[in-house]
Amino acid sequence: MSPDGRTYRFVLRQGVRFQNGREVTAEDFRYSFLRILDPKTRSERTWVLDRLEGAADVVAGRAADARGIRVRNRYTLELRLAEPFAPFLALLAYPAAMVVPREEVERAGPDFSVRPVGTGPFRLAEWRRDDRLILEANPGYFRGRPYLDRIVFRIIPDELTRLQEFKAGNFHHTDVPAGLYRTIVADPALKGRLPSRSILGIQAIRLNVELPPFAGNVTLRRALNHAVDKEAFARVIMEGRVQPAAGILPPGMPGYDGRLPGYPFDRARARRLLAEAGFPDGKGLPPLTLHYNTSPTNRRLAEFVQAQVAEVGVKVELAALDWPAYLKLVDAGQTQMHRMGWIADYPDPENFLTVLFHSRNVGERGNTSRYRNPQVDALLDRADRAVAGAERVRLYREAERRIVEDAPWIFLNYYSTDLLVHPAVRNLVEQLSPMDSSPTIGLVQMRLVWLGE
């Protein structure tokens, strides 16, 4: 990396081959990156690479090439950013930045997404829509053939059916159905088969700070935070599977601050703040509306929050929508309060604090509470550009502290994931990604997993 934090030079490992046998070169990365930026591809992930010099012109259709992507020789790729962006290397690990062979993309055309060719340890052998995906080992993988010869991912939408298939010995692993965690823990036949792991994610009730009554009334927002018992929420609604949230950055994320006090449950304090906000015992405060995307767990969540704030005199009405309609309403800023979770796209605090709270990201870009604070923006801009890790952590922690004080969310919980695993499976849990909420078919390093006795 150059001293100014803008230029990155990558020397590729020689001998790495695509699953069709051809060696990977720097030109393949150039092609792959430009393909994502090309408006003809209609990728929803141009944001992964749009900080490269000239990338904006490619995305807009004004240019076919980006000066920030340069091939120096067969095995050397140079990338130059329009301005320093410290999380850039973490961003390059995102799936949209993975290398693909041009000849296979052009051969498959629009079917490349269902006939992919990459460099990984497994290749797609068969895809029976709505039934199963079958992967087979790639003998030419540059790190050596994986332990498993074949992996079959069954597509079974009903979670109770998946559980029964696991109990019958037909699955090596599956997820844990919502609402059945305690039942499964108490089942002696499943003892020792239920590992849990924290993931880099948070769930909250986001408050629209552009709309009344939350606009300009931080005291009201703080009152609602103190009115909700996060410990009881984690224990009762989430079955003890999660950790209550005091802030935004989850444990395990660089910059996580375990000293943040957050908003401890305190009804007396909530009532005092409610009075200071102009609504003693909730008087004069019109009913609020809490939107959530339809699911049994989300319904229980919404009812819990509704009951909690009712104890201090705040009336909340609930509105459930299916995900497409819900997201459209949320992105347009047409909800007062809405439930939302967030799981890291890449392991950097920028992916939480800047994406979810910078004023330039208001709306569908991530900041759905529509929070704006120029001082926070300035801190985040400095942190995103800072090269020194310690300075970045300091800036992000200060930004997080200020955001939490402004209470644009009711902070509920940090996420974790649970997985039922057959005793014969080795090294699966250790390979679960902290950025993956769907470990049954997600970001798992399956090349390092094997079956024992």
Task: Indicate the topology.
Elements (H helix, E strand, L loop, with lengths): L6 E5 L14 H12 L17 H5 L9 E5 L2 E5 L7 H5 L9 H7 L13 E7 L3 E6 L12 E5 L4 H9 L5 E3 L5 H6 L9 E12 L10 H10 L2 H8 L5 E2 L22 H10 L11 E6 L2 H15 L5 E6 L1 H9 L5 E7 L6 H8 L16 H12 L3 H18 L2 E13 L3 E2 L23 E2 L2
Parallel strand pairs: 10-11, 10-12
Antiparallel strand pairs: 1-3, 2-3, 4-5, 5-6, 7-13, 8-12, 8-13, 9-13, 14-15
Helix pairs in contact: 7-9, 12-13, 13-14
Give structural attributes:
single chain, 453 residues, alpha+beta, Dipeptide-binding Protein, domain 1, D-Maltodextrin-Binding Protein, domain 2, Dipeptide-binding Protein, domain 3, three-stranded antiparallel beta sheet, 14 helices, 19% strand, globular
